[in-house]
């Protein structure tokens, strides 16, 4: 009777749809086949899958790598918007909150593009209007001449205070990295508050977000270790996960790899992550570490969604897996365009 | 005479007792069909919404989804059979 009391039909409907969509994602074998194809072959192959509509629509306007890039972005945005339409009640609220990360990505893409003097049309190709800023708002931002005007037009949006506060410093140093950190920190603080707001199902949403924060923090730690510059670690720490700001800073100060892994393992609970960290005692490239951490994150998310089949988890797992499918296809296409060997491209795939 | 006496013990006539028994049978049959109907409804709620979700994504699953959706109908059929047995046996 527990299931009957707590689960409503719309939840089951949406979760099943997400599970079917997840089953339709490209399997590992298809990626392996694509590694042996040329760029036009990959385009044709993608055109026979879920990306058919976008490839058909855009084939007259774009060619080669541009066609794949734009088709993938369009498909991802369309998919995310569709999911926001069909999710009911609290699930919609959590899904929309989770997708707000694309606002940060889109705004930063526009700002970076403008700073580099990239044409508006070129910037538009890689935007994914999946968050609260829809395609119309982004289209209005693109023709703006200066970065100041873009930031001003976002007045009233939740990102505006951080953008306005951080822009002068970013302009001075010519880099948006600090602004990006601050935007993501604000984003995670907001979605954590949303999960803790007492809404039904919020605790499951929090579990998912905390895992995301943990993986992000661990990736940052590994990046800082690989980096030759000494930076203030606390600035890059995201609050809310298993690692506190002090733990994060202390871990960053440890030079010995073995000791670093031991200390990190003491703070982590997930079994999958613990066995992965054990594997990382020997020095590995940062790319390898990141890909493996992402794989573990997806696997852990998958387990969570199986444990809670009628909850926000199946939806978020699909959102993440779809994102990585698009990233993989983009990496494949870009790799082929740059004539990289297949083994090299395979290292960048998250499958 | 004796039968009338026995029937009168409960303050009821034989006709009244027969009618009461028939009423109880009807009530039992009604409960059997009604409760199993509710059970079937609850079971089909989950299966039906999942089936509609699956068919919305993949039209080929219609036949299979329909089959799964009607499986809990057996519960209400059991209820109906029990109801009929109560009423006519």
Can you summarize this structure?
The complex is a heterodimer of chains A (351) and B (89). Chain A has helices at residues 2-6, 9-24, 28-35, 39-46, 52-58, 64-86, 89-99, 101-116, 120-125, 135-141, 147-153, 160-173, 177-195, 202-226, 245-253, 257-267, 271-279, 286-307, 312-337, 342-347.
Assembly state (oligomeric): heterodimer
Radius of gyration of chain B: 22 Å
SSE ordering of chain A: HHHHHHHHHHHHHHHHHHHH
CATH 4th-level superfamily of the largest domain in chain A = ATP synthase (C/AC39) subunit, domain 3
Which chain pair has the greatest contact?
A: A-B, 14 and 12 residues
- Number of separate strands of chain A: 0
Could you explain the architecture of this structure?
The complex is a heterodimer of chains A (351) and B (89). By secondary structure, chain A is an all-alpha fold. Chain A folds into three domains: 1-86 and 312-351, ATP synthase (C/AC39) subunit, domain 3 (Topoisomerase I, Chain A, domain 4, Orthogonal Bundle); 100-190, no CATH class; 202-310, V-type ATP synthase subunit C fold (Up-down Bundle), CATH 1.20.1690. Chain A contains 20 helices and no strands. Chain A has helices spanning 2-6, 9-24, 28-35, 39-46, 52-58, 64-86, 89-99, 101-116, 120-125, 135-141, 147-153, 160-173, 177-195, 202-226, 245-253, 257-267, 271-279, 286-307, 312-337, 342-347. Chain A is globular, with a radius of gyration of 21 Å. The model of chain A has no long low-confidence stretch (mean pLDDT 89). Chain B is mainly α. Chain B has a domain at 34-89. Chain B has four helices and no strands. Chain B is rod-shaped.
């Amino acid at each position: 009777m527990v299931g009957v009391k707590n689960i409503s039909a719309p939840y089951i409907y949406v979760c099943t749809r997400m599970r079917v969509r997840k089953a339709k994602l490209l399997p590992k074998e298809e990626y392996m086949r694509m590694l042996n194809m040329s760029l036009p072959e990959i385009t044709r192959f993608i055109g026979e899958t879920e990306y058919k509509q976008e490839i058909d629509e855009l084939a007259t306007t774009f060619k080669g790598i541009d066609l794949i890039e734009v088709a993938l972005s369009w498909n991802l945005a369309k998919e995310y918007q569709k999911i926001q339409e069909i999710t009911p009640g609290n699930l919609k609220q959590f899904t929309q909150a989770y997708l707000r990360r694309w606002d940060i990505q889109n705004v930063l893409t526009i700002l970076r593009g403008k700073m580099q003097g990239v044409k508006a049309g070129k910037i538009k190709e890689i935007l994914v209007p999946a968050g609260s800023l829809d395609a119309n708002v982004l289209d209005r931002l693109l023709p703006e001449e200066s970065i100041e005007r873009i930031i001003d037009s976002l007045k009233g949006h939740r990102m505006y205070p951080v953008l306005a506060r951080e822009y002068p410093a970013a302009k001075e140093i010519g880099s948006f990295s600090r602004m990006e950190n601050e935007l993501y920190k604000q984003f995670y603080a907001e979605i954590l508050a949303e999960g803790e707001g007492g809404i039904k199902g919020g605790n499951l949403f929090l579990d998912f977000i905390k895992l995301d924060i943990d993986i992000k923090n661990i990736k940052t730690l590994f990046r800082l270790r690989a980096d030759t510059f000494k930076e203030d670690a606390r600035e890059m720490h995201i609050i809310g996960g298993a690692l506190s700001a002090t733990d994060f800073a202390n871990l960053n100060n440890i030079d010995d790899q073995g000791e670093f892994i031991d200390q990190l393992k003491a703070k982590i609970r997930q079994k999958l992550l613990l066995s992965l960290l054990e594997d990382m005692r020997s020095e590995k490239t940062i790319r390898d570490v990141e890909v493996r951490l992402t794989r573990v994150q997806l696997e852990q998310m998958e387990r969570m969604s199986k444990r809670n089949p009628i909850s926000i988890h199946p939806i978020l797992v699909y959102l993440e897996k779809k994102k990585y499918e698009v990233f993989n296809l983009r990496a494949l296409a870009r790799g082929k365009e740059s004539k990289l060997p297949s083994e090299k491209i395979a290292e960048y795939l998250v499958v | 005479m004796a039968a009338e006496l026995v029937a009168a013990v409960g303050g009821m006539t034989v006709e009244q007792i027969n009618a009461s028994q028939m009423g109880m049978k009807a009530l039992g049959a009604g409960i059997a069909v009604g409760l199993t109907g509710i059970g079937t409804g609850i079971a089909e709620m989950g299966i039906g919404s999942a089936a509609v979700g699956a068919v919305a994504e993949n039209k080929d699953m219609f036949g299979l989804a329909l089959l799964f959706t009607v499986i809990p109908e057996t519960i209400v059929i059991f209820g109906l059979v029990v109801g009929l047995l109560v009423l006519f046996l």
